Amino acid sequence: MKFFIDTANLDEIREANNMGILDGVTTNPSLMAKENIFGKLEVNKHYKQICNIVNGPVSAEVLATDFKGMVAEGELLADLHDNIVVKVPMTGDGIKAIRYFSDRKIRTNCTLVFSAGQALLAAKAGASYVSPFLGRLDDISADGIGLIAQIRRIYSNYEFPTKILAASVRHPMHIVDCAEIGADVMTAPLKAIKQLLNHPLTDKGLEQFLKDAKQL
Ligand code: E4P
Predict the structure, then answer these.
(1) Which of 11, 85, 135, 179 is most open to solvent, judged by the fewest CB atoms within 10 Å of its CB?
(2) What is the sign of the dihedral through the CA atoms of 56, 61, 66 and 70?
């Protein structure tokens, strides 16, 4: 399973990249706003900076909601850097835009997916990635991991090449569950990725080894 980081923070992206486990980045308008990146020029500059840190796909979201606007914005984003994947929301116009981009070999990430039917449509339109938001489903007492499993079965039935990008990951067990189910990619905040490192027996064992090593 590929590991993407879900942030627009350059320090966090560098830190994850330096761990040697990072395969890509996802951003969204809220994450960009959190970093105080505003205005087209600043936003585009920021995407380029991210692309220069990570050697892998970087999702950049269109802000337009109509087909023409999405196409115009997406083409500009795709021209910024080879790493850019155009992130398009799951709407009727979004599906049309994904088909348009797919026919022109521009990679897409279909975002805000909350049902298997939506994921099926994204695959039919030729999305490179589909992003089911599992944490937001869990937040409303629905079954986020169950949705990832259902999409996995559907895509495997028909060998759809669309990659399942498990998004809205909140904690390390989400990551482990995604890996067990066979998600192709997961995107998580740095905190959840780093939490995978922790185990009390590792800490205890290391402390003992270091103590015993002093007698050598
Ligand atoms: C995915 O691409 C989104 O940026 C993201 O995972 C949303 O996560 P959230 O529900 O924690 O905002």
Answers:
(1) 11
(2) negative
